[in-house]
Amino acid sequence: MVLVFLLWILIPEDYIQSFFLVSQELLVFLTTPIIDFLGLLLSPTVIISLLFIIFIAIILMMRIRYHIKRNAVDTNYCPVCDNKINRRHRKPIHHLLSLFIPVRYYYCKSCGWEGLRISSKVRRKK
Ligand SMILES: [Zn+2]
103 CA to middle of ligand 1, Å? Predict the structure, then answer.
């Protein structure tokens, strides 16, 4: 408090005014490019092309998912000891992964192995 008061007395008023003026100009100088960039991002061309890219990405993801599911070999046996494995509740990270690759979480009662397997539960028309 005393220091601020001392500075107030010692620094000439012109300096303080010019400091505020410079800081205001600096703020405008720094924020103008950001505002311009946001304006560019919100243009219809950019939005439409982004939506198109997202649409294509979703279609590709669905195709890849379908093929992985179709080619998966659904073995319910432990890769370590060849005993039967049981399903277990998936963790949040597995649910996230499951958006891209259809996986299920299994564990083995006899050897303690636990891990993910690709599930092939796809309905095939006959
Ligand atoms: Zn096992």
Answer: 18
CA of residue 118 to ligand 1 center, whole Å? 17
Q: What type of residue is 60?
A: L
- pLDDT tier at 57, thresholds 50, 70, 90: very high
How many angstroms is it from 82 CA to the middle of ligand 1?
6
Residue of 45, 48, 55, 64 whose CA lies nearest to 118: 64
Query: 114 CA to middle of ligand 1, Å?
Result: 8
pLDDT by residue (tens digit) across 7-50?
777 777 777 788 888 888 888 888 888 888 888 878 888 899 99
The Cα 49–Cα 87 span in angstroms is: 42
Contact 68, 117 (CB under 8 A): no
**Which domains, ranges and CATH numbers included, belong to the chain?**
74-125 (2.20.25)
Question: Whole-model pTM above 0.90?
Answer: no
